[in-house]
Design a protein that fits this description.
The complex is a heterodimer of chains A (136) and B (101). Chain A has 136 residues and is of the alpha/beta class. Chain A has helices at residues 21-33, 67-71, 84-89, 120-128; strands at 7-12, 38-43, 80-83, 101-104, 110-113, 115-118, 132-135. Chain B has 101 residues and is an alpha/beta fold. Chain B has one domain: 3-Layer(aba) Sandwich (Hypothetical Protein Ychn, Chain: A), CATH 3.40.1260. The chains are: A alpha/beta (136), B alpha/beta (101). Chain A binds chain B through residues 14-19, 45-46, 49, 52-60, 62, 64, 66, 89-92, 96, and chain B through 8-10, 12-13, 34-35, 38, 41-45, 47, 62-64, 66-71, 74.
Chain lengths: 136, 101
Amino acid sequence: MSETIKKFMYLNRRAPYGTIYAWESLEVVLIGAAFDQDVSLAFIGDGVYQLLEGQDTSESDMKNFSTTYKALGDYDVTKLYVEKESLEERGLTLDDLMPLTWEDEDDDWAEKDSIRLVSRAELADVLDDQDIIYSF
Amino acid sequence: MSTLHTVNKSPFEKNSLADCLGYAKEGSAVLMYEDGVYGAMKGSTVAEKVAAATGVKFYALGPDLKARGISQEKLAEGIEVVDYAGFVSLAVENDKVSAWV
């Protein structure tokens, strides 16, 4: 039986820390990545807060899992869509997010941006093209 | 009667902050903590509503801001940062606490 690669989309809609959703999403993403599928993540609504630069939980007795996003590139998870409208509503720009990159082995290990800034309409098309969507 | 209102939900996910602002009278205090601290950021569509609440003093819990990567320069004007001891002081200084969970 031939291996079928499916397009998996993990839709991140909630802020980190207040609930367990963001962390659980990351856990599932890493499991999915181990099965060599075509994995994408999207950050909409409060989900964009997950990528804010400078998270520091040293005073609040919680695990700072924000560094995990920086490791996604090593698991070939290189498509992170961030919705423009969600950033704007929250007074944020790309500069407020942590830089996330991956190394392209087919291009002499060139460092490339993982974050793709898209409009809601563009993201709707991306979602339409997926085989499976998990919403967190 | 002075009241300390506490808000711990994101203003974009729940209407807790909006409800709170509708009931917070002059002279009362609003403390944002947990995901409520996103209501303390400047430049958002919520910031205008917070700024419009005259006579209400706003506080945000420092450790929760820090965890979420919200530095001092990302805060809206007029938001005072407090630590856990400050949270307790606010609860003691006011006549009662109204928790908009």
